[in-house]
Design brief:
Order of helices and strands of chain A: EEEHEEEEHHHEHEHEEHEEEE
Strand order of the largest sheet of chain A: 7-8-9-3-10-11
CATH topology of chain B: MetI-like fold
Distance between the termini of chain A: 29 Å
Distance between the termini of chain B: 47 Å
Number of strands of chain B: 0
Oligomer: heterodimer
Number of helices of chain B: 11
Structural class of chain A: alpha/beta
Radius of gyration of chain B: 20 Å
Number of domains of chain B: 1
Largest interface: A-B, 26 and 19 residues
Largest sheet of chain A: 6 strands, mixed
Radius of gyration of chain A: 20 Å
CATH architecture of chain B: Orthogonal Bundle
Shape of chain B: globular
Helix content of chain A: 25-40%
Helix content of chain B: over 70%
Chain lengths: 279, 226
Amino acid sequence: MIQADISHPLHTASGRGKLELAFQLHQGELLALSGPSGGGKTTLLRILAGLLVPQQGKIQFQDQLWLDTSARIRLRPQERQVGMVFQDYALFPHMTVAQNLRYALPKGGPHTIIDELVRTVELEELLHRYPQQLSGGQQQRVALARALVRRPSLLLLDEPLSALDSPMRARLQDYILHAHQTFNLTTILVSHDYQEIRKMAHRMIRLENGRISEEGAPETLLGKRSPRTPAEFLRFEPLHDGRCIAWLRLEDQDVSIPILDKAKLNWTPGQKVWVRIDG
Amino acid sequence: MDAIFWETMGLTFRLAAVTTACLLLIGIPVAYYLAYTRHPLKPFLEALVSLPLFLPPTVIGFYLLLAFSPNSALGAWLQEHLNIRLVFTFAGLVLGSIVYSLPFMVQPVQSGFEHLPLNLKEASYTLGKSRMETLFRVLLPNVKGALLSGIVLSFAHTVGEFGVVLMIGGNVPGVTRVASIAIYDEVEALRYAKANEYALTLVAFTLVILIAVYSFNRRHHNRLRA
């Protein structure tokens, strides 16, 4: 179990704020973090990973104290059993896929874990390619596999699917769920996509201005919302199969929905539209 | 091209090679520190490293001469306790060249580090790798172009330096008389043809090096874009 109690200043586009929250996470749980940009989601992940030391805080992971600012205890990222997938994947551009995976292997670690991960996220055909020769979805799979080579106990996913189109998103959600279960992980996923949260998370926390504004089961929280919600239409984005997705701004978040025939909609950017959120 | 010419050119390139090797050892840690530190003294340290770019070389040479002269406390101490004499010696030339060319190594490498996405370093840390391993296996391979620029600029700049060398090294044939001093010396003696031999060699050398660097950087850039 993870217990965290954190206080840290936030500097966002809308001004200064403070990340102030306490939460628990159970072994094997998949927690979704949601909320408007600048709310502190990425800052929280960076603090959990040890990449950022909060002004004040305590993080207990099982029987290991990762952080206690009052006692000046701070485990470095290397000493925490954390895997992290960054929003833009952070693959090493000078290494092939195989080299990226091997780099993550601890000294003397078993190579079998790499073979297993390559099979799990279907990377067999891509092993000798460089990251810049891969699509977004392929890079995401490599980043996920690389984060798992070290057999972390806690997996942190910072909006890893936000740049992908809908069909690819759905496939990668399955990969993440599969990895979460296969490797007995505790996972925190940052996501703005309600469908994704409903499909994947056991529990969700909505962070607003650095504080928890809502916490609970996704079906309970998302079900509470009005069935018809106003949104601002932003743009259409074509998919390879002739369909497209529409990007909407919904309560300060950008969400995407698949559209079968955009000609029938006649939406223009900035137009107010109504969307129905399934409970 | 006589024996003195080859001796002078040999000394020039030996000085440039030793200086560049020392600058690699010193410049990479300095560049790494300046790229990632948030210490309030960072602007001061950056200004200190860049100082040789903006000062007349004779100013640096003058202060080094004062510092290492056997009459100064430091110079006397070095000679007495370590038996090291830095004025009018090759070792002194190397030291002066290191100070003078430091920004030419530090600035491109620092800029290379600063332009790398921060999350490459952070990803490596979350994969359990130490700072040292991250530096050598992730950061440096991704700033190869900047590193090459630093090496070439430091080497070429050392080959071409005049003021610092003259102040601290003087004009001792075979010991401190490098090509730039030799050109000055030959022109003073109205031996223009001899001065031209040195000058033309330096022009040709510098041109070849720069073409090689631009070609490498273009290939490296194209490979990353592919």
